[in-house]
Amino acid sequence: MEGKLDQVAKEALALPVDDQEVLAEKLVGNLVSRIPAKLKKQQLAEVMRRRADILNGKLQGIKVAP
Fold first, then answer.
1. Which tens digits make up the pLDDT trace of 7-29?
2. Which residues, in sequence order, are CB contacts of 64 under 8 Å at separation 6+?
3. Count of alpha carbons within 13 Å of 54, Cβ hemisphere only?
């Protein structure tokens, strides 16, 4: 017998793509809301540091195909 998680995943994957996207956003949003404030602050500082490194030419960004 499949586990509950396997069954939910199977049902989610059977949804139309637009609904899968909405579900994914809800799941990620739920996880993000559980990140401690201190860690969020550290993550933001790292993002800002990397952004500055790219803007001042210290690092090069990765090109993503459209």
1. 999 999 999 999 999 999 999 99
2. none
3. 10
* Side-chain-facing half-sphere of 57: CA atoms under 13 Å: 0
The CA angle 21-23-28, to the nearest 5 degrees, is 95
Of 61, 51, 33, give the one whose Cα is nearest residue 25. Answer: 33
Classified as helix, coil or strand, 58 is coil
Separation CA 24–CA 32 (nearest Å): 12
Q: What are phi and psi of 46, to 5 degrees?
A: -65, -40
pTM over 0.85, yes/no: no
